[in-house]
Design brief:
The chain is of the alpha/beta class. It has a domain at 5-72 and 101-176 and 279-353 and 388-394: FAD/NAD(P)-binding domain. It is built from 14 helices and 18 strands. It has helices at 13-23, 49-57, 62-67, 91-98, 107-121, 166-172, 246-252, 258-265, 306-323, 327-356, 361-373, 377-381, 383-386, 390-394, and strands at 5-9, 28-32, 44-47, 73-78, 84-89, 103-106, 126-127, 132-137, 142-146, 151-154, 156-159, 178-190, 203-208, 211-218, 223-231, 243-244, 270-277, 289-291. The strands form four sheets. An eight-stranded mixed beta sheet has the order 5-4-13-14-15-12-17-16, with helices on both faces. The longest helix has 30 residues, at 327-356. The chain is globular and about 65 Å long. The relative contact order is 0.18. Bound molecules: flavin-adenine dinucleotide. Residues 9-15, 32-35, 45-46, 130-132, 160-163, 166, 184, 186, 227, 273, 293-295, 301, 304-308, 310 line the site of flavin-adenine dinucleotide.
């Protein structure tokens, strides 16, 4: 196929990873981002071995190792007593099991690495202040229009513009999200504000009635990332840029173990996000346009795979465009490969949410007993996700191709 002009709308984690994969496959890539400056909202993100494989393929290895944290385990604990219900050993055990480690990383650090990796192979190809407001399929090209009145014509458009994707809406109309009745509070605490030894280099998942609380270390272990999820019906704003109320966060976790009190007490501020769920889409592509990441498979955060799936998407998309004779066939093949896997993760995250937020004491006791009886069960359940090896399936992306422009 001739060297296509590929437009990626959105410079989030998914869009930037895709841009590097596409550029390294020889395409002429431009990323359009609505923000005035590159950056990421929020703090931590968990990156499983399946996504680490993609990062390595686009040259993000040593830099990532420097900023990311390798947790030694994931502890599931009782909300009130801190009793350990289940421990999954991560660290070297995970590396031996999946060939690569499991990481916790600050989103801004990962975002910077992704932007630098793309800049290294496509200097000056990210356009900021470029909010896409229109998309038109021409004969064999696509025209994007932006809110400053400008437009651009390319061969292929990738909508990587997140959960409220305007590209998705242009292709398939408005979506129909379902409010889950759950709200997530998110904040960070400098480790030096907490009693020494309180937080180890682990992931923690505290499980209580109608609530759960996850925390882990970032920034070389100097910062604790916390997410508290509660059943709550009166907040419907799906955005990380909206500040939450610290008193409300504290009240939601009244009666929880002292560790949780110390964590919430150590925060200066928090964000509040209403969790919406969506059915898997039946279709992602039309003509020369497709979708990627949250734009086509927004998922509840309970398997910690939304960003990982977005990162995998770009690798497969680049492979499909490389190996098909026409852009439309490549996009169709991408959708056919990705849709079943990603839909399964979407639905799995939904089920995990139900298990996490049980409130009936008998059901909770039964769940905890099952977890305690078979501590490896949870790890086994994730094998099909973490084992996925994009390089083995779709070929390696070693060196950048020479620039075509
Ligand atoms: C509480 C919580 C915890 C999570 N934890 C994890 C985790 O541990 N691990 C994990 O893998 N995932 C996690 N996720 C999911 C993850 O955050 C998302 O799946 C991921 O960020 C999606 O990336 P994206 O690039 O598709 O979209 P986004 O990150 O939303 O990026 C979209 C980009 O498009 C830009 N944009 C939007 N509209 C336009 C437009 N019209 N024109 C131009 N640009 C536009 C935006 O400014 C943004 O830069 C979590 C999510 C939540 C809510």
């Amino acid at each position: 196929m001739k060297s296509l002009r590929v437009f990626v709308v959105g410079a989030g984690l998914g869009g930037l990873a895709a841009a590097s994969c596409l550029r390294r496959s020889g395409f002429d890539v431009t990323v359009f981002e609505q923000a005035a400056a590159l950056g990421e909202v929020g703090a931590g993100v968990q990156i499983g071995p399946n996504a680490v494989r993609v990062l390595h393929q686009i040259g993000i290895k040593d830099g990532f190792e420097k900023v990311a944290v390798r947790p030694i385990s994931l502890d599931v604990r009782d909300w009130e007593t801190a009793r350990i219900i289940n421990t999954i050993t991560l660290g070297d055990t995970y590396e031996a099991r999946y060939g690569l480690p499991y990481y916790h990383v600050h989103r801004a650090d990962l975002h910077t690495l992704l932007a630098d990796a793309f800049e290294a192979v496509a200097p000056g190809c990210i356009r900021l202040n470029a909010k896409c407001i229109g998309l038109e399929q021409l004969n064999s090209e696509v025209r994007l229009t932006f809110d400053d009145g400008t437009s651009a014509v390319g061969d292929v458009v990738i909508g990587a513009d997140g959960i409220h994707s305007s590209v998705r809406e242009a292709l398939f109309g408005p979506d129909n999200p379902h409010f889950t009745g759950m709200v997530a509070f998110r904040g960070t605490v400098p480790l030096n504000r907490l009693p020494p030894g309180l937080i180890e280099c682990k992931g923690y998942n505290w499980s209580g009635p109608h609530h759960h609380f996850v925390h882990y270390l970032l920034k070389g272990g100097s910062l604790v990332n916390c997410v508290g999820v509660c059943d709550q019906d009166d907040w419907r704003v799906e955005s990380w840029s909206v500040e939450g109320d610290m008193d409300e966060f504290r009240n939601e976790f009244t009666g929880w173990h002292d560790t949780i009190q110390a964590l919430i007490g150590g925060m200066d501020s928090c964000f509040k996000w209403a969790l919406y769920d969506r059915e898997p889409l039946a279709q992602w592509s039309r003509d020369h346009t497709t979708l990627l990441g949250d734009a086509c498979h927004p998922m509840l955060p309970f398997l910690a795979q939304g960003a990982c799936m977005a990162i995998e998407d770009g690798y497969v998309l680049a492979h499909c465009l490389r190996t098909h004779d026409s852009a439309a066939a490549g996009l169709k093949a991408y959708e056919t490969i990705r849709l079943p896997r990603v839909s399964r993760v979407q639905l799995g995250a939904r089920e995990r949410g139900k298990t996490l937020h049980m409130s009936d004491p008998k059901a909770m006791a039964k769940r905890n007993a099952q977890n305690a009886a078979d501590p490896a069960m949870r790890a086994r359940e994730m094998d099909w996700i973490y084992d996925h090896d994009v390089a083995a399936e779709y070929g390696v992306l070693n060196e950048p191709q020479p620039a075509s422009r």
